[in-house]
Amino acid sequence: MLRCHAIPYSANVDRVALAAGLKGLEVHWIVHPYEERTEVERVSGQTLVPVLEDGGTVISDSPRILRYLDEIAPDPLLWPDDDPVLRARVDVLVEWFNGVWKGPPNALEALWKQDRTDDALEAQLAGWTPWFEELLGAGEYLLGDRLTAADVVIWPFLRYAAWDAEPLPYVFEHVLQQVCGVRDHPRLMAWIARMEALPRA
Ligand SMILES: N[C@@H](CCC(=O)N[C@@H](CS)C(=O)NCC(=O)O)C(=O)O
């Protein structure tokens, strides 16, 4: 069985749980306290989660893990192989989200921990939220009527931006909750709820 190292309330871990759930894969979760990464480092040579173990194969970094899951369990494919245009759009959105979108909340997290902020970064992050609302005008999912890696990669972060259950433990998620402004966007809120209802491992 697949094993995955995790911490509670981790958006990057949620990506793996959702991808595995959609594919009907079982995962044995090893949940570590946020401050304790000895085992993660021993297994993977670095401290961030998620880390997936499949027999002797060890993979860190959630997008790499999702691509691995597409290889070992291609039903459904998160990166569609029958539509090159859609597949390229998935790559663009996934790379933009990981390489660009995550920048401001990471920077704001570091500033908020020092009781500082940056108005321009907050405005940049808030200004991106309507893009998701507009994308959802084309269908049930971010790139139309087909669920893709873009939804799996992006949903966990906007999920925490919309979170209204128990208090979240990390400053990063407080940034998302207080800055993204997802609640002003009905299609986005409906997509967040639709994604929440999908199976997770
Ligand atoms: N690029 C990595 C980032 C992983 C990452 O930042 N994980 C967070 C949890 S969501 C973490 O382990 N943070 C602990 C730390 O920064 O020390 C991925 O997508 O998996």
Could you please describe the fold and organization of this structure?
This protein is 54% helix and 9% strand. The protein has 2 domains: 2-72, Glutaredoxin, CATH 3.40.30; 84-196, Glutathione S-transferase Yfyf (Class Pi), Chain A, domain 2 (Up-down Bundle). The chain is globular. The longest helix has 18 residues, at 84-101. Helix 1 packs parallel to helix 3 (62-72) and helix 5 packs across helix 8. A hairpin with a 2-residue loop joins strand 3 (51-54) and strand 4. A 4-stranded mixed β-sheet has the order 2-1-3-4, sandwiched between helices. By secondary structure, the chain is an alpha+beta fold. It binds glutathione. Glutathione (GSH) binds at residues 7, 10-12, 47-50, 61-63.
Layout of secondary structure:
Blueprint: E1 2-6, H1 11-22, E2 27-31, H2 38-44, E3 51-54, E4 57-60, H3 62-72, H4 84-101, H5 103-112, H6 119-135, H7 149-162, H8 171-179, H9 186-196
Parallel strand pairs: 1-2
Antiparallel strand pairs: 1-3, 3-4
Glutathione binds at residues 7, 10-12, 47-50, 61-63.
